[in-house]
Amino acid sequence: METRTALITGSAKRIGKELALHLAKQSWNLALHYNTSKAEAMALRDYLKALYPKQVFKVFGCNLSDELACESLIAEVSEEFGQIDLLINNASVYSPGSIKNTSLDLINEQMQINFRAPFILMRDFANICQRGLIVNFLDTRISRFASDYAAYSLSKVALSHLTQMGALEFGPDIRVNGIAPGSTIAPINAEEDYLENRAAKTPMKKPGGMQPILKSLDYILDNHFLTGQILYCDGGEQLI
Known about the structure:
Blueprint lengths: L3 E5 L5 H12 L2 E7 L3 H14 L5 E5 L5 H15 L4 E4 L14 H26 L2 E6 L12 H21 L3 E8 L12 H6 L11 H12 L7 E4 L7
Helix pairs in contact: 3-4, 4-5
Keywords: Oxidoreductase
Family: Belongs to the short-chain dehydrogenases/reductases (SDR) family.
InterPro entries: NAD(P)-bd_dom_sf, SDR_fam
C-alpha cells in the first residue's frame, strides 16, 4: 500500500480529531498539529500508535498566530516525513462581534489564524511539497451577509477565494478544495439542544454530525478531477 502523509492543523480536538481518526483508519501517516492542546495531541498520538502500529504519527506544536513559527511548519513536517501528500487547514478561531463592535485586535486575530496561516501553509506546501492535495475548512457563513461574526466570516470568505485561486495556480500537480460545514459540533458550554435548534431552521431539519463531513473529505480524496470546489456540507443552511 502506498504510504501517504497528511498534516492536519488543529488536530487535537473536535473536528480536527475526528479527521485524524478517520484518516488513520484509512492507513494515512499523520502529522498532528496543535497550539495549546499539547496533552490532547499527545494522547491522540499514543492512541493511534497503539491502534495502528505500522503507521507513523507525530505531534507538532505551532502557534499559527506567530508568522515565523507558521513559516517553518511545512518544512519541519516535510523533514520528518519526507513528503506531505495532504494538507488540511482545519484550525480556526471563532469569535462573535458585529462590524460596529469589532476591534482591530479581533479582526487581526481572526484573519491571522483563519486566513493568513492557511495562506502561508498553502504557499509553502506548493513550494516545498510541489504535489498533493489541499483541503481548506470553511463555513456555511461564507454564502451569507450576517454580521454577528463579522471578522470570522470575512476571514473565511477570504479563505474560500484563496481556495479557488490556489486551485488555479497550483494545478495540475496540486488540487485545492474546500469543505463548508454548518453547525456540526456544539460550542463549549452550549445548551444541550443547540444543534437541534440550529438544524430546525435548515431544509434538512436535523443535525448532520461528523459523518457527512468525513464523506465529503472522502469524495475529495477519491475524485482526482476535482479542484477549486467548495462542498457545502450544511443541510442546506447556505440557502437560508
